[in-house]
Amino acid sequence: MLTETINAFFDSLGAEWILWLLLALSVLSVGIMIERWLFFRRNAAAVDELSSRLMKQLQEGHTKEANATATAAPGMTGAVLKATFDAYDAGVENIGDVITATLTRERSRYDKYLSILGTLGNNAPFIGLLGTVIGIINAFAQLAGALDGSARTEAVMHSISEALVATAVGLAVAIPAVIAFNSFKTRIKKLVTDNDWLARNTLAYLQADPSKSKER
Fold this sequence. Notes:
This protein is mostly helical.
């Protein structure tokens, strides 16, 4: 009895709403990809070039100029370098903790919305599979229906076709989301590594010779 009730429910529900849901999720996924891409582009910094300029300024004793150069850097790089210079000027004993804390805070900004991409990548195929299951239920319901001959065959094949479309759409939503998620995560990992190196290298130059590091 319960099985028949559930079967009738899914039969009346249909699978088309699954396709609309997947379409909406695909729009959301693409929107997040574009927003994150623009965010990364807007906050990109040439770490190697910036490092060379900073080290040269610090070696020449131009700490103020180095501080200005660091502060002008965009995104995570500028935030970490600014925190490093501020902590050094304030006489903080363990500046390494400041660097780590700043990187953690900045990483959360770069990770924004990526959990949605990860969730879509993991679950969109299952949503499509749900549509497939509902479509197959409809197909069996039509097999048991009153239609005969070619009309029944045509209706059943149409239901199975719709069911397979739901799976295909689910995969089409999931695959780009997974690729984008992994790409952004890899880029963030590299950014954190590069900026950690840059901040600690800058700190080493600041602490190398106090008489040269602080301008009078």
